[in-house]
Amino acid sequence: MRLTRYFLPVLKENPSEASIVSHRYMLRAGMIKQSSAGIYSWLPLGFKVLKNIENIVHEEQIRAGHIPMLMPTIQPADLWRESGRYEDYGEEMLRIKDRHGHDMLFGPTNEEMITDIFRAHVGSYKDLPLTLYHIQWKFRDERRPRFGVMRGREFYMKDGYNFDLSKEDALHAYNRHLVSYLRTYERMGLQAIPMRADSGPIGGDDTHEFLVLADTGESEVFYDSAITDLKFGDREIDYDSVEQCQNVLEEFTSRYARTDETHDEAAFANVPEERRRSARGIEVGQIFYFGTKYSESMGATVINDKQEQIPVHMGSHGIGVSRLVGAIIEASHDDKGIIWPEGVTPFHCGIVNLKQGDAEADAACEALYSALESHGLEPLYDDRNERAGGKFATMDLIGLPWRITVGPRGLKNGVVELTSRRTGESQEMAPDAAVARVAEIYANL
RNA sequence: CGGGCUAUGGCGCAGUCUGGUAGCGCGUCCGUCUGGGGGACGGAAGGCCGCAGGUUCAAGUCCUGCUAGCCCGACCA
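^ Those are the sequences you sent over. The predicted structure of the assembly is below.
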């Protein structure tokens, strides 16, 4: 993309409405525009990041054997009356009446709806196990929305629901989600630590929250620092293997790691003192096993191999897709702007032309642009008639992980400059070498 | 939902106390000179001063009511 043809309304100064760093940078980098409290338009740059995150979530869900679908944002109140949550949910649920006077609601989650779909079409144990998920906009009418997209009222979320014949099977689904979530966050350049959590209004026995450590996190967390050494890496996992998934769960949850809701001082005291940490964290996902809570109240049953009608065991599993955009920035930025991890960056590489209009510089930039594209990469070429300082400041703000700087001075010696946004280190090299290096970085993701 | 604060051009702000031609910086547009970390000069556009009512010869400014947004807390993914 050429910057002169793009829509990137960057702001030089900090908008007064934003207090935390991710919100400030998302506004300044032209990623979002607030519409009303907790509701945002996603401008092109923000939309790209949102979609990149969504794609990673999809890929990892499908890899784990989960099946994508899409349910509506607007749901009928009657479904929620059946589960009893229409009354329980309170003011956070946005209630709407349609023209016929029917009570509707903008869904804050989809347990009722998915259970309704399940009971209509699934009747036999032979259809299980089954895990369906979707990525859809949700609405929770927060009393006090804040922190930009991290606690909006409208938010984009992946929610998945597993249906299993037994508690044992459902716990495997739980473990499978935990493993797939570890992979998902790691691909986004995040370390998200699974922590034992409180089940809240969804209810249930087993639940873990995934938290990204960041100073601005809304939850206080306590953990054994040994857990931050754990990496999922490129290990091969057979998601059908109960044993393999169980092993990963044990590896990643055996160390002490809890939010303040479930924090236990006595248990924490058993962690060696030098490894005890308290910090702040941003919740970016949660997995639940809740048994037969919804299947019993809503009649989601199957016939087992003994001709008995039994309620299915369920769990639900969420990833906050829109919230992740903010969380990644909280975890990866400096005083100049955002630093995107390669996995989610809106463009793979920036091209800065230091002297727009100079025939050689222009030609070299065009050549770099095509060469990067021919490697399947998406460059952002700053072809504005701006001075160097302005171009650098924009690139630093929007956070592309790699930048190639092209100027007459370097071209005289046949070189351009390749700069890492994260480390700030620059290397001079031939244009071809710079392209090859960037291509290699992305090929190895 | 309690407490606090704010609302003036796209963004950041002054002007309100003490009523009298709506201003500054940044950004935007045009031109010239520039060209390795937000450059210089010259020109230009852009505002029912959040909304409604009131006081007054006169309201951005004073009064009343409302709305929206932000911050702290409680709450929450």
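Chain A has 14 helices and 23 strands. Residues 167-187 of chain A form the longest helix (21 residues).

Shout if you want it in another format.
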